[in-house]
Amino acid sequence: MTIARRPFIPVAKPIVSDDEKQAVLEVLDSGQIAQGPRTEAFEHAFAEYSGVKHAVAVNSGTAALIVALQAHGIGPGDEVITTPFSFIATATSIIACGAKPVFVDVDPYDLNVDPELIEDAITPQTKAIMPVHIFGHPARIAEIAQICDDFELALIEDAAQAHGAAHQGRRAGSFGTGCFSFYPTKNMTTGEGGLITTDDDEIAERCAIIRNHGQVRRYHHDHFGLNWRLTDICAAIGLVQLKKLEGWNEARIRNAEQLSSLITAAQTPVVRPGDRHVFHQYTIRLARDRDDVQMRLQESGVGTAVHYPIPIHQQQVIKDLGLGDVSCPVAEAASKSVLSLPVHPSVTPEEIEYIAAAVNEAARA
């Protein structure tokens, strides 16, 4: 059976309305364009949303990771345990601090780092564990937090894809030091931007200092830092988007549930009982040639993306740095089978039905 083609459905579609535009115009009219009162208001709002005491805004998700690592004192000679199945910034942020990423394979259930493999990777040089809440599904973060407590390690959550995700009733980013991204394809955006969440007063203070050239007060630089500041223009967008986030997350969850009820020719995403998956990506796993399925879906008008085609430890830059000599068979197999489908709030129920039918047809071809 050949399904009738519809207009192209993109895999991601940022939503920006007149509300965001008006908020930006108000900032421009105020004359306070760089970090200022909107940034502070955005920090307070996101901290409250996440259930933490502090939030420190920065200018990208990568900056959030680097600043958080530096605030925890991570530097040359240190090791940070993390996942090989993520965007490369998870690892390069560690490298940027002079430390070494140590890759631990992922759980085949949800493709998050496997807590049962972490302890074997801990050495005297290990200073932190950095799990990623991949695709919006929380890692087994309570177990990882316990390991951190047992071995006196910092817990830095890469929550770049997990705005509003929850594990055991707690938001992602509230178990350790959380790091969020507000890139345009995320569940909410500030254009570019990032944010660090924490309950630790000292870590929050250090992050605020480090993001602003290490200044304790103006022109007094007691710490090493760079310009990681967020602008009030971006923060104004974030304040508007944060108010809409829960509605958008619920739409993503509904779309994901509908897709999973209709797709029969591929392995659909799982949700661990008790967790809240916010579906930054809806990522299936295919038993046949992924690239052929992707091409057929493109021809059918369904946008897709591969997250991620090469595990971090197999990226050339990581090999060149001598950090790729590790075997992560689950991540390596996943990279050959994963395919992300449109799940964003702009996708209609009729388009969901079309996407599922197109997937079933392409996967069985």
Give me some keywords for this one.
Aspartate Aminotransferase, domain 1, Aspartate Aminotransferase, domain 2, alpha/beta, 37% helix
Strand order in the largest sheet: 1-9-8-5-4-2-3
Could you tell me the number of beta strands? 14
Mean pLDDT: 97
- Output the helix-strand order: HHEHEHEEHEEEEEHEEHEEHHHEH
Shape: globular
* Largest sheet, strands/sense/barrel: 7 strands, mixed
User: Helicity level, as a percent range?
Assistant: 25-40%
Under CATH, the homologous superfamily of the largest domain reads Type I PLP-dependent aspartate aminotransferase-like (Major domain)
Characterise this structure.
By secondary structure, the chain is of the alpha/beta class. It has two domains: 18-239, Type I PLP-dependent aspartate aminotransferase-like (Major domain) (Aspartate Aminotransferase, domain 2), CATH 3.40.640.10; 245-364, Alpha-Beta Complex (Aspartate Aminotransferase, domain 1), CATH 3.90.1150. It is 37% helix and 14% strand. It contains eleven helices and 14 strands. Strands 1-9-8-5-4-2-3 form a seven-stranded mixed β-sheet, with helices on both faces. The longest helix is centred in the C-terminal third of the chain and has 31 residues, at 232-262. It is globular, with a radius of gyration of 21 Å. The protein starts with 17 loop residues before the first helix and ends with a helix. The mean pLDDT is 97.
